[in-house]
Recover the amino acids of this structure.
């Protein structure tokens, strides 16, 4: 494609995007298709000869768009927002056009320097502790943009693992992998499944801590578990607290968790605020960021709640040197003479990095902190509105504390009518929502996501939800009245009573196609949490790339060293809590 063709088609694509955004409501929010739909429409092999761009665009509209879920549709209430905005799309276009791969300062000085500046703007806008801000006096910390929150969690865990192993091995030559079976991480059962994935990848144990009825990690159980594990000779090394859990947007008490973590020197506290961390841009939400001063690392995704398109996930660490030393490799072909320039390749997994800071810079400049605050406040007001509508209807209940944009609601029936309600909502194509289990109950997650969401969007959605619910409840009532009477004393259901109580058989069974149409937003370890009484996952099978004799020697040496090292790991029961919290 030459520059004139690019200009022509570029303008067409921009026009298409504008048209798409303006008329999006005319489209169904999600398609009703079965897997494999596209295979039937596209050839099995790539074309041998060039095709016209016009044909490609036509196929895009006719074949690709019908299979798209419209995350920026006013009736998209699923997952969390995808954080799109026009300024960020334009910033990303420029980043793609420039195409610089900014892994080191030398490979693209502007990318490296803008990332540092924007990460500091962002940290200051969120009111993060100075320790995370690289240009704050005396700070050893800083931030970097990663591809996803999952990556942030993994990078933090790997850094924590390196720090713990270094502490354990001291000056010995014991192979690092020898210590893997000892390392144990902790997260609440409501934490995101990316924590479970990270521990699997890092070959370390994960202990799952129960949550309270509001979905917050039980700090008493965390403290107990750490103590028990330390007493059993394990090394607690990583705790993940979540601000804004996926299932119910619950906020763990970081202050209390932080105080517990402070008592054990080997523990790294990571705070995952993938969605809700962005809300700290509002002073009134900072009640939930209290305690971040205890954290070693913190992540939040501007691509969820800060109007920045995927991918962009911000990670800050208190000590950049620890992060860099955990991930540092330095082959000759990547070295350069500008030692004062930041090399972001040491801050994450990939070598090559997109110029992501550009889109975030565009967003900050075009909205300003005030514009971003207004956007989030609007989501909060609308979520509260929806919550009020649900609470006013005695057939429904709200199960979570609504602090931000997420409302978890359900009909006061058994789970099955709620499954059916969600299936009908999504099957209609007019709205899109996802389910979750919150505090042991099946709930429908209603998340305000659209940038320009209005009260009308919320009212329309509620009226449609009620319409589907009425149909389902009518069927349920019919089932109840036509079923043989069951004496009250024989009822075994533990479901709460309401206008429709007990667990009547549902006439409308979900068809396969329907049931495929909603996905499940899963927090950590739900299956494991239910299936394992111990709540312990052992992803730990150390990889040893040494011969068996060396392994034997390593283990002997480790046993001796461990005896000496045991004194290093403070027994948390001996620590004065007041002193630790100072
Ligand atoms: N952490 C939390 C709390 C989340 O809600 C999510 C996803 O919704 C993630 C982590 C994973 O995010 P990502 O898709 O950026 O890896």
């Amino acid at each position: 494609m030459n520059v004139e063709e690019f200009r022509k088609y570029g303008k067409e694509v921009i026009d298409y995007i504008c048209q798409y955004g303006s008329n999006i409501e005319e489209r169904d929010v999600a398609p009703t298709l079965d897997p494999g739909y596209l295979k039937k429409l596209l050839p099995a092999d790539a074309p041998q000869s060039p095709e016209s761009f016009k044909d490609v665009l036509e196929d895009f509209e006719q074949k690709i768009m019908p299979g798209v879920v419209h995350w920026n549709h006013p009736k998209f209430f699923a997952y969390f927002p995808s954080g799109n905005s026009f300024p960020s799309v334009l910033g990303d276009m420029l980043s793609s056009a420039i195409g610089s791969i900014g892994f080191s300062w030398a490979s693209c000085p502007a990318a490296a320097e803008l990332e540092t500046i924007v990460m500091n703007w962002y940290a200051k806008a969120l009111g993060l502790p100075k320790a995370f801000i690289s240009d704050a006096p005396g700070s050893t910390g800083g931030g970097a943009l990663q591809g996803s929150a999952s990556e942030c969690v993994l990078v933090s865990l790997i850094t924590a693992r390196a720090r713990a192993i270094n502490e354990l091995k001291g000056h010995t030559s014991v192979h690092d992998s020898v210590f893997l079976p000892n390392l144990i991480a902790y997260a609440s059962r409501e934490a995101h499944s990316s924590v479970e994935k990270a521990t699997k990848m890092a070959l370390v144990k994960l202990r799952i801590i129960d949550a309270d009825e509001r979905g917050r990690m039980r700090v008493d159980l965390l403290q107990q578990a750490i103590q028990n594990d330390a007493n059993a000779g394990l090394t607690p090394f990583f705790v993940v607290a979540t601000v804004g859990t996926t299932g119910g947007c619950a906020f763990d008490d970081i202050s209390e968790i932080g105080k517990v973590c402070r008592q054990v020197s080997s523990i790294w506290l990571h705070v995952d605020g993938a969605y809700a961390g962005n809300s700290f841009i509002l002073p009134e939400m900072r009640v939930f960021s209290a305690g971040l001063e205890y954290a070693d690392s913190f992540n939040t995704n501007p691509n969820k709640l800060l109007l920045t398109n995927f991918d962009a996930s911000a990670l800050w660490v208190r000590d950049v040197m620890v992060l860099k030393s955990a991930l540092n490799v330095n082959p000759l072909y990547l070295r350069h003479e500008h030692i004062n320039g930041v090399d972001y390749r040491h801050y994450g997994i990939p070598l090559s990095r997109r110029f992501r800071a550009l889109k975030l810079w565009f967003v900050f400049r075009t909205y300003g902190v005030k514009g971003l605050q207004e956007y989030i406040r609007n989501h909060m007001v609308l979520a509260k509105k929806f919550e009020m509508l649900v609470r006013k209807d005695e057939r429904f209940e709200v199960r979570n504390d609504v602090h931000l944009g997420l409302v978890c609601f359900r009909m006061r029936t058994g789970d099955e009518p709620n499954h059916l309600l969600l299936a009908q909502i999504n099957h209609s194509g007019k709205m899109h929502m996802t389910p979750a289990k919150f505090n042991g109950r099946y709930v429908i997650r209603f998340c305000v996501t659209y940038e320009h969401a209005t009260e009308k969007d919320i009212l329309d959605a509620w009226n449609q939800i009620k319409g589907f619910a009425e149909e389902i409840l009518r069927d349920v009532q019919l089932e109840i009245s036509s079923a043989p009477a069951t004496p009250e004393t024989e009822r075994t259901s533990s479901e709460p009573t309401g206008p429709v109580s007990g667990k009547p058989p549902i006439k409308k069974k979900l068809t396969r196609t329907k049931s495929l149409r909603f996905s499940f937003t899963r927090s950590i370890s739900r299956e494991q949490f239910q299936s394992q009484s111990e709540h312990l996952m052992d992803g730990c099978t150390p990889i040893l790339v040494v011969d068996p004799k060396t392994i034997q020697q390593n283990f002997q040496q480790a046993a001796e060293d461990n005896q000496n090292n045991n004194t290093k790991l403070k027994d948390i029961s001996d620590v004065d809590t007041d002193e630790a919290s100072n």
